[in-house]
Amino acid sequence: MSLTITFSKNPEKNTEAAILCFYQGREQGTAAKVLNYALSGFVDHILLKSKTFKAKHGQCEIVMLPDGAPYTYAVLLGLGDADAMTPVEAEKAGGKLCAALQAAQIRSAEFYIDSDLVKDQDLAVHLAAGLKLRSYKFDLYKKAPMKAEDRPDRLELVRMVLSDCDKVSNDYFVQNAMIEGVFLARDLVNEPPNELYPDSYAKRIKAELKPLGVDVEIFDDKKMKKMGMGALLAVGQGSDFSARLVVMRWRGVSGKTVAGEPGPVALVGKGVTFDTGGISLKPGAGMDEMKMDMGGSAAVVGAMKSLALRKSKADVVGVVGLVENMPSARAYRPADIVTSYAGKTIEVLNTDAEGRLVLADALAYVQQVYKPRLIVDLATLTGAMIVALGHEFCGTFATDDVLWDNIARAGAATGEKVWRMPLDPLWKEEMESAIADVQNMAKSGRDAGSCTAAGFLWHFIEDGTAWAHMDIAGTAWIKADKPVTPKYGTGFGVRLLDRMIAENYEQEF
Ligand code: BES
Ligand code: MN
Ligand code: ZN
After folding, report:
1. Strand pairing report for 73-78 and 60-64
2. Range of 370's domain?
């Protein structure tokens, strides 16, 4: 059972716990005072006598209440410095609260948001969003029968108690649409590669999105061969699972496309369902993590779900290239020269630099068929990105300053951190081949590997197109929990894309 969050003006006092929040150095709110009174001064007692609870940001103190109290537990949540509170900080506090409730095996709680303490009641939306984001679990494959007490960390219900409950619950609807998209992206990344391969993935996309009003078109390998997608197909040819290209269209705008009007926003994702490296085989240790190599495509699919769920008034096309990169007798080789959809020939020097081949065809296709107003691609493209920025920031390359600004603002607003990386014609040159149009490894080798990879992609972007490339190699997958993101597939990018579209590319009526 997943976490349900509800909003109510009044408490029902039928939950296990009451959550009270405190700002550092500020007087407590009414709810705390009321509960304190009902408990003959017990809350004051904790606040005065606790050696550890300082109301620091995200700090939780959980105490059992005496028999006869309206709740079994009181949960004291620190919100830190009131002046430093922002939506992103509220989400983090909500996330840490969720982890503390799970650790204490609390299943239901009422969360008092005092209007005299939390003046900006909209923060309740973000506290709730943080709770929900952190509550995600991937347990589809936990099949062994388990007793309820062996599954203790199931937080099932949080009732937010606040005066402005109608507005906040409306605002939460939008957050919830976004979170559903994030959860789908996380699920897709966490799926094992024997279950999620190009064909099953394409079918899953259709099953998820079609009922929501998204048009979904699937191209199989035979169709792609006719279309001339030689780069994408080369990557997939070593696998028994044949490649797919999936095109998703959400038209939240009224009427038909008018000549001269900007085309759709295009989102393009790398969907390598498993990256062994191919003939340029990766080392065995840690190879299992390469099931996350479809994280870019998962972000695109998740964002399409969010847009459709909240009926975004935007026109968006999503394209994902789905392949498995395997070594076999049929696999492509280093030294092969393939012809891409754009017509440019590519000399393959390393079959492990496969993501750029998949993207080359997906990018060329979306430009030729949809004439988009802008393109954002997301890809777990280079290990070098992890070396550069670790797991906190997503390196983002952009040909267009306005597009970059919109991405940066959406990143700051959602807490999905981005850092601008340089695009330089020098790195485009680095990828020119002596015997074909381009090559998939830089002439200079591994130096600036993320930048030369971007330089390769740039060869497939038409002049004047606003394009951003987000290398999510470090941010799509984490091995330790973060405040709003439990470990493994993160769903990185969904919130940023949804926000960027909401703020900049929706039609006004
Ligand atoms: N999928 C990998 C990049 C990657 C590595 C993502 C680690 C997440 C974690 C990509 O296909 C790859 O193998 N890139 C090579 C490129 C090189 C051969 C030019 C790399 O980064 O080593
Ligand atoms: Mn690779
Ligand atoms: Zn890869």
Report:
1. antiparallel
2. 178-504
Q: What is the DSSP string of 381-399?
A: --HHHHHHHTTT-EEEEES
- Average of per-residue pLDDT values in the chain: 96
Atom of ligand 1 nearest to the CA of 385: 21
pLDDT of residue 508: 73
Dig out the tokens for 284 from the structure.
Answer: 């065995």
CATH of the domain at 259: 3.40.630.10
- Can 499 be counted among the known catalytic residues? no
User: pLDDT at position 232, please?
Assistant: 99
Mean pLDDT of 351-375: 98
How far apart are the C-alpha atoms of 380 and 392, rounded to whole Å?
14
Rounded to the nearest angstrom, the distance between the alpha carbon of 381 and the centre of ligand 3 is: 6
For position 297, what pLDDT does the model report?
Answer: 99
Marked catalytic residue, from 134, 204, 356, 499: 356
356 is catalytic: yes
Mean pLDDT of 494-505: 98
Region 365-374: what's the mean pLDDT?
98
Smallest CA separation from ligand 1 atom 19, residue: 353
Does ligand 1 come within 6 angstroms of the Cβ of 473?
Answer: yes
384 in contact with ligand 1, CB cutoff 6 A: yes
Residues 369 and 416 in one domain: yes
* pLDDT at residue 509 greater than cutoff 70: no
Same-domain pairing of 278 and 147: no
Count of domains for the chain: 2
- Token readout for 469 is 């490339």
| Sheet bearing 337-339, strands edge to edge | 337-339, 345-347, 438-439
Query: Is it the case that residue 255 has pLDDT exceeding 90?
Result: no
The lowest-confidence range among 20-29, 322-331, 456-465 is 20-29
By alpha-carbon position, which residue is closest to atom 14 of ligand 1?
A: 382
Please name the amino acid found at residue 267: L
247 Cβ closer than 6 Å to some ligand 1 atom: no
**Could you tell me if 218 and 86 lie in one domain?**
no
Task: Pull the structure tokens for residue 71.
Answer: 């709740």
Mutation probe of ligand 1 site: the residue of 352, 444, 477, 479 with most atoms within 8 A of C-beta = 352
Ligand closest to Cα of 287 equals: 1
Q: How far apart are CA 488 and CA 53, in angstroms?
A: 31
Q: Are residues 132 and 274 in the same domain?
A: no
